[in-house]
Amino acid sequence: MSIDASTVLPRLCIISSGNDPDGSGLLIRRQIELLRPSLPSLMQIREKHLDASTLFRLSLTLKAAAASKNVQIILNERADIAAAAALDGVHLRESSAPPDRLRSFTGRMLIGKSAHSAESALNAAHSGVDYLIFGPVFDTPSKRQYGNPQGLVKLGEVCRSVSIPVLAIGGITPENTPHCLSAGAYGIAALSLFSDTTRFPGLLTTFEKLLYS
Amino acid sequence: MIPSLPFLCLITDESLSPVDLAGKALEGGAAMIQLRHKYANGEQLYQWAVAIQALCRKHKAIFIVNDRVDIALAAGADGVHLGQQDLPAAAARKLLGDGRIMGISVSSPLEAFAAEKNGADYIGFGHIFPTGSKAKTNDPVGPESIENVRAAIKIPIIAIGGISAKNALLPINAGASGIAVISAVSRADDPKKAARELVELLQTNNEHRR
Asked: Which domains does chain B show, CATH number per domain?
């Protein structure tokens, strides 16, 4: 582990919409703007359709936007671009290069990884990542490609079997977040929930109470 | 590290097993393999890269990964090849250090000059001839344009695009250090034989020039 993730890892992970039309990062920058100092957050850039050159420029833009905020910027999958832009971390997909082989150039960056089954979560935890995003816990349109919902029981099993923080993902709402935490989740991650910026400030207030009190 | 005599670089074919193809090209005498697979996941790319790197070591050839500096570093590849839409050269060089090879795709003397200035070890220049391997909107640059690039930079030029045994000597005679092919080897009935024929052609030409 590059750093003691459990002491610094935010309990809230906001994942970008995946719909950035041109890499300008308008929605993500708006989301970062609305974040508050009292709620530590992870912002994961996940715009798979953008080429590496555009992702690099977007990473630099968002890093600058995050400078005075209590947020860590994480890039999906591309450890090279994240390292080149000196971001806070990289979030690997379930099928990725071995995390320990990436540490040689990622330095103190956080390395997280997605897991869509208990077996995959165990393997990922043993591969030396700093945290896991596990799900889908509940049913959600954006996560159906990753298989059937794993449910709270599986989430609990995973959280008990690994020693690194686990963020629950997939159909997360303020209503079901307490159940995820009771099952052992360290925090939550969501995408569509946060894509409506008019609801965003209210959601942050709610999640701050749920995750940090 | 990049061969001083005219050489063959094989770029893997999106629709074929890259390890198998690389093995055949190396047996045929290819001096450089570039793993290029835009739609494979990181785990798959890493596994291919490790396997091809081992093959290249055995054949004393150079192994290059397209676009993914992370995969190249994780797998211990000899270097990367970057397009104009990939990580900028200066940023990639910082990650790669001085020990690894960085190639850059260019299509004009100006881009070639910038690539060299930004730390490229070689450039891929093309497309030289019409090609079916990639959807291209612009016209082929033609082998004679290599002379203009040669005049602008000192680093080796690898010619790419529509090169086959029929035309392989034209770019070499215009100043290219090597040729890069996909389909001329991958789509041949016998890829190993096709690679060998190209390599022999390049070597024969070299003997004539002495």
From this structure: 7-205 (3.20.20.70)
Q: Are A78 and B70 an interchain contact pair (Cβ–Cβ within 8 Å)?
A: yes
Residue to test with chain B: of A75, A80, A102, A111, most B Cβ within 10 A: A80
In the CATH scheme, what is the homologous superfamily, with its name and number, of domain A5-212? Answer: Aldolase class I (3.20.20.70)
Catalytic position from the list B24, B68, B105, B177 = B105
Put simply, the chain A residues between 49 and 108 with a CB less than 8 A from any chain B CB are: 51-54, 56, 77-81, 83-85, 92-93, 95-98, 101-102, 104-105
**pTM as predicted:** 0.95
Using one digit for the tens of pLDDT, what is the confidence trace for A113-150? 999 999 999 999 999 999 999 999 998 877 777 778 99
Q: Cα separation of A100 and B203, whole Å? A: 42
Whether the CB-CB separation of B201 and B168 falls below 8 Å is answered with yes
Q: Which of B65, B14, B3, B7 is nearest to B183 (CA)?
A: B14
**Tens digits of per-residue pLDDT, A14-56?**
999 999 999 999 999 999 999 999 999 999 999 999 999 999 9
Buried b (16+ CB within 10 A) or exposed e, B49-87: bbbbbebbeebebbbbbbbbbbbbbbbebbbbbbbeebb
